[in-house]
Amino acid sequence: MNNAFDLSASFKAYDVRGVVGETITPQIVQAVGAAFVDVQGLAGQTVLVGGDMRPSSPEFIRDFARGATARGADVLLLDLISTDELYYACGVLNAAGVTFTASHNPAQYNGIKMAKAGAVPISSETGLREIQALAEQYLNGAGFDTVAQPGRISVRDVLADYAGYLRNLVDLSGIRPLKVVVDAGNGMAGMTTPAVLGDSILPGLPLDIIPLYFELDGSFPNHPANPLEPENLRDLQAAVIEHGADIGLAFDGDADRCFVIDEKGEPVSPSAVTALVARREIARAKAAGEQTPVIIHNLITSRAVPELVEHDGGRAVRTRVGHSFIKAVMASEGAVFGGEHSAHYYFRDFYNADTGMLAAMHVLAALGEQNRILSDLAREYEPYFSSGEVNSRVEDVPAALDRVRAEYGRDGVTVDALDGLTFTSDDGAWWFNLRASNTEPFLRLNAEAEDLPTMERVRDHVLELVRK
Length: 468
Description:
This is Phosphomannomutase/phosphoglucomutase. Residues 389-464 form the Alpha-D-phosphohexomutase C-terminal domain. This protein is an alpha/beta fold. Helix content is 36%, strand content 22%. The protein folds into four domains: 7-157, Alpha-D-Glucose-1,6-Bisphosphate, subunit A, domain 3 (Alpha-D-Glucose-1,6-Bisphosphate, Chain A, domain 3), CATH 3.40.120.10; 160-265, 3-Layer(aba) Sandwich (Alpha-D-Glucose-1,6-Bisphosphate, Chain A, domain 3), CATH 3.40.120.10; 270-379, Alpha-D-Glucose-1,6-Bisphosphate, Chain A, domain 3 (3-Layer(aba) Sandwich); 385-466, TATA-Binding Protein (2-Layer Sandwich), CATH 3.30.310.50. Strands 1-5-4-2-3-6 form a six-stranded mixed beta sheet, with helices on both faces. It starts with 15 loop residues before the first strand and ends with a helix.
């Protein structure tokens, strides 16, 4: 056998990401389409296939469809979609699906996000490795046969249904008028924002939307579609100030993450957004008769989140970092909502999947249902001081962790190993987490404290130990 194809460079823990023409090609995509159907047992069933605005996405959609139909699945082409549109479609149609996107990665990349029926994620632990292995077998062997009854291809646009579904979950029609700057980063939010928040499909809302980079352009001519990097928020921050806007929203390339900017041009932390949405979802669930609604948060969100959840009569459940972990716990706990520091927000009413748009609608509702400015509203959800995520390149990660444990693993400090190491002072004054990257020689530090000097002291001391 000629082992020319090794897909390990593009198959990641949660999805597929590769350089177009190198680690992701039409031939590879066709084999992955066939393997997807075979591994998931989808012959005779419908598979949903869509993609983002990257130039390679339309061709890859067709190639995947060829592989999938050859192995007996019917393919429903959703064509141009955001990632949360795929999750909506997988949920409402109860069908497995894929979307071609590389999220916030640069223009030369593309990839595949996969989900089972009901929007259940497919990760390396739930089928992705088997799909990789079978695709490699097809590529390195004699290929795959076309079954006696190949599947058929049809087309469906789900944008209007998706927009209507979100509008039914959060009613914005009665809020006070708000001026909203939205930076789509030339990504899919340039299509979904007018549909959900504007009047392109549904009746208009009391929102004055000021568009920034709504043109769908997978070459990202203005800035990378990665709002996690502060420099990519600068245009939005300037536009909020220039227009005297009430709020700014920034989406990543495939629009499954949303970042929030207040009226002063300052970022509202994803932890604060998590707490704000959690409060609304707890109140709604309790009004519907749920006694103790469950809220999921990963271990590096602010401790303000579990404190608020408990205060409001919910139950906070802490998880590892990563969307497949959160979605699994969302399902097993019957959680109403979950949030991550990376601005992924998960909703039970959205098939336990993440959607940046629905989180944005909750923030708009919370802001528009009262008269305070966003910076005042957000302040009650950000009582602590956070370092943000600080990366250190470390050649010997275990040795660095041992140095920190030797210094901080003492009386008066609790240590747990749910995901990396988390150190928490027993008096509640500070905590920090150190996690090793899965793909690079990095240690990632997140620290938080009751006051800024304490946070800076802990942060700087831990970094000194790590970087010795």
